[in-house]
Amino acid sequence: MKTIKLTGSGLEMPVVGLGTWRAQPQEVENAVNVALESGYRHIDTAFNYNNEDSIGKSIKQWIDSGKGKREDLFITTKLPNFGSRPSDVERFLKLSLQRLQTDYVDLYLMHMPFSFHLNETTLSPLVNEDGSFSLDNVDFVDTWKVMEEQVQKGLVKAIGVSNFNAEQLQRLYNNSEIKPAVLQVEMHAYLQQKNLKEVCKQLQVALTAYSPLGSPGANNHFSSKYNYLLDDFPDILGHPIVKEIAQKYNKSPGQILLKHLVQNDIIVIPKSGNPDRIKANIDIFDFELAKEDIEKLDSLDKGEDGRIFDFYFFKGVENHPNYPFRKKERKE
Ligand SMILES: NC(=O)c1ccc[n+]([C@@H]2O[C@H](COP(=O)([O-])OP(=O)(O)OC[C@H]3O[C@@H](n4cnc5c(N)ncnc54)[C@H](OP(=O)(O)O)[C@@H]3O)[C@@H](O)[C@H]2O)c1
């Protein structure tokens, strides 16, 4: 498996990992097992995916069966944005470690640059009576200082951030002892993040693409969980150019979208609960995209208009001072 060496820790991060957002406990337990059997060594989760327990169980079974060791794996989890007050960081990390049944994670990410108040009873975001999220004005530089302490304590090997924009990343970089090793952001053929790629290259921050396939199915989740609907949810896998290139290489559209990123040294974390698709998503190392096909895929970029995760499903999020993306009119 191709890896990317992380600046600072020198850790080798496998370029394909298993995404697990929206994966239900039994589904993810099977998915991790199939993934490990198929050669995955990198799993991406988060405190608020509520599936760390199942992932931990599956990993433990794999290790106990003698198929591999903890050190063979690269596990990423994320500090929830309702746990980003400095006094809460270690507590949330330790909860994740306990659920994952491990003494350390390889990568700990600050999930979002904006914070919500914590509902202590449910360990979830506090929501106001009108349905808006209760905004907490935490400075992510203060959160980061406590994340740095977790590296010193050996509870995490590397630290990074997610959903930060270029200015926020730069500010964190300028105000940190341990520099962010990884930035995880939405990235796919419709949102190619050219500016962020440049900034990350300069700062030597590795980039992970989330929703690399365009997150089919996320629209159902947004509407059922948050009663929020995105206009024109994209179907990147169904784009005629992606399908045409897939045919040419005798690969699936998903494999083409993933290869387009990986060939550009971007780490990808496609989610699947389906054994065939889990296997297919890592089977992308036996071909190279030709220059003309890369150019065709590059031309699909819609810039900011290609963004799916604007987080508007968190009612009122755009009023947070650290909201990272272009603001738009909110429909009620
Ligand atoms: N940091 C963040 O804020 C953030 C936000 C979103 C996501 N993430 C991370 O990134 C991961 C990936 O993003 P995502 O889950 O949003 O979207 P994604 O990986 O782009 O797409 C996942 C969806 O595509 C389907 N799928 C998987 N492989 C396929 C293939 N080869 N062909 C066709 N369909 C395929 C899956 O269904 P089946 O399961 O039925 O195969 C699932 O519905 C997440 O799981 C999570 O770990 C992070």
Q: Can you offer a commentary on this structure?
A:
The longest helix is centred in the first third of the chain and has 15 residues. α1 packs parallel to α2, α2 packs across α3 and α8 packs across α9. The mean pLDDT is 96. This protein starts with a strand and ends in a 34-residue tail after the last helix. The strands form 4 sheets. It has a 7-stranded parallel sheet with strand order 3-4-5-10-11-12-13. Strands 1-2 form a two-stranded antiparallel sheet. With 332 residues, the protein is α/β, with parallel strands linked by helices. It has a single domain, classed as Alpha-Beta Barrel (TIM Barrel), CATH 3.20.20.100. The site of NADP nicotinamide-adenine-dinucleotide phosphate has 30 residues, from α10.
